Amino acid sequence: MSSFAWAQGEYKVIAVSDGGTISGNVKWTGPMPHNLEFPVTKDPQICDPEGKKVTELDRLIVGPQGGVANTIVYLKNITSGKALELPDQRRHLDQKGCHYIPHILLVPQNGQLSLKSSDATLHTVHMDGAATFNLPFPFPDRVSTRNMPAPGLVHLRCNGGHVWMNAEMMVVSHPYYAVTDESGRFEFTDVPPGTYQIVAWHEGWGLAGKEQAYDVLTERSVQRPIFTEPKTWEKSVTVHPNQASTVDFVIANR
């Protein structure tokens, strides 16, 4: 499953009475890469209302202060802790303006993902990886749900000709996962005391080329972008009872 690590024993829910916190930031350094846009080749009235003829690929979002959004940070070797709860907004996928929103999804194992389209055109959500579905959305605002029983990484793309649409979903077995916000910040609370490996995972932002794909509506061959492999950074962190720990990551285009 790419470079994402899932070697994890059975997670046990315990009462955490003397837990600490881990917080930090993921920051970008150096020049920004190119090729973060792709031509709009279908439904410009919906996908490109401003007439720019290109759209963002959503692969790398760096804020004004250098924070990197949409990085998944998680504790790699934690075997017990608080109950599995994740942000609700990361479990609801919308297809809006020919983009998947949010771009990074975080769903608990055996939890449900809800999906809908706000666009008045045919989209599909084609998933491969830890979940495999191909769901059409021909009508706006009709919600569909799917259960996610297997932990792991899931790639999402559109087979309706909107070849730039892409997103990533992590189905996770414990609660110590976070997606960095627009400032690159993350935080874990109620972490049992101990020493852990903390990992920052980014889907990657490079273009490796294009591949032939199939538009299910027009039955025509189209060119879909191929992305480079995800990137990971790993550090050790020690959590002391009722204390705060800080871990920062600095990433670059190299």
Would you write up a description of this structure?
This protein is mostly beta strands. It has one helix at residues 44-47; strands at residues 12-13, 20-29, 37-39, 54-56, 72-75, 80-81, 92-96, 99-101, 104-108, 111-117, 123-129, 134-137, 144-148, 152-157, 166-172, 177-179, 185-191, 194-202, 207-215, 220-227, 231-239, 244-246, 249-252. The chain has a 5-stranded mixed β-sheet with strand order 9-15-14-11-12, with no helix packed on it. Strands 2, 17, 22 and 23 form a 4-stranded mixed β-sheet that branches. Strands 16-5-18-21 form a 4-stranded antiparallel β-sheet, with no helix packed on it. Strand 11 (123-129) and strand 12 (134-137) form a beta hairpin.
Keywords:
mainly beta, 5-stranded mixed sheet, 1 helix, globular, disordered N terminus, 4-stranded mixed sheet, 254 residues, 2% helix
Structural class: mainly beta
- Terminal residue distance: 22 Å
Q: What ranges have pLDDT less than 50 throughout 5 or more consecutive residues?
A: 1-8
- Give, in order, the helices and strands: EEEHEEEEEEEEEEEEEEEEEEEE
Binned, the helix content reads under 10%
Rg, Cα atoms, Å = 19 Å
How many β-strands, per DSSP?
A: 23
Strand content: over 45%
Apparent shape: globular
Number of helices: 1
Which quaternary structure do these chains form? Answer: single chain
Q: Taking strands numbered 1, 2, ... along the chain, how are they ordered across the largest sheet?
A: 9-15-14-11-12
> Could you report the average pLDDT, rounded to the nearest whole number?
93
Biggest sheet record = 5 strands, mixed
